[in-house]
C-alpha cells in the first residue's frame, strides 16, 4: 500500500503541470473512493463511503 501511495504522489506531481484543474479534482475524488474501497472494513465502510460521497457532492463535479 505504501508503494501505491508513493506511485500516486509521483504521478500526481508529474501530471500537475500537464493536467487541467478539473481533471485533477476528478482524480483526487477517484483516489478517495479507491482508498475507501481498498481500506474499509465492516466497521469503517459506511463512514468512508459517506465521506467519499460528501466529497463528490462538495466538488461540484456532475456525474
Task: Write up this protein.
This protein has about 60 residues and is an all-alpha fold. It has a domain at about 20-63. The chain is about 75% helix and about 0% strand. The protein has three helices and no strands. It is flat. The model has no long low-confidence stretch (mean pLDDT about 85).
Number of strands: 0
Low-confidence runs of at least 5 consecutive residues: none
Category by helix and strand content: mainly alpha
Rounded radius of gyration (Å): 13 Å
Mean of residue pLDDT values: 83
Which sequence of SSEs, written as H and E, runs from N to C?
HHH
- Strand content range: under 5%
Q: Separation of termini? A: 28 Å
Number of helices: 3
Shape: flat
Largest sheet: none
Helix proportion range: over 70%
In short:
By secondary structure, the protein is mainly α. The chain contains 3 helices and no strands.
Summary tags:
single chain; 63 residues; mainly alpha
Topology:
Layout lengths: L1 H14 L5 H19 L5 H15 L4
Amino acid at each position: 500500500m505504501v508503494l501505491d501511495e508513493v506511485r500516486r504522489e509521483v504521478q500526481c506531481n508529474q501530471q500537475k503541470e500537464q493536467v487541467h484543474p478539473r481533471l485533477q479534482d476528478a482524480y483526487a475524488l477517484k483516489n478517495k473512493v479507491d482508498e475507501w474501497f481498498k481500506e474499509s472494513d465492516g466497521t469503517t465502510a459506511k463512514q468512508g463511503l459517506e465521506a467519499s460521497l460528501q466529497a463528490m457532492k462538495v466538488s461540484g463535479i456532475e456525474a
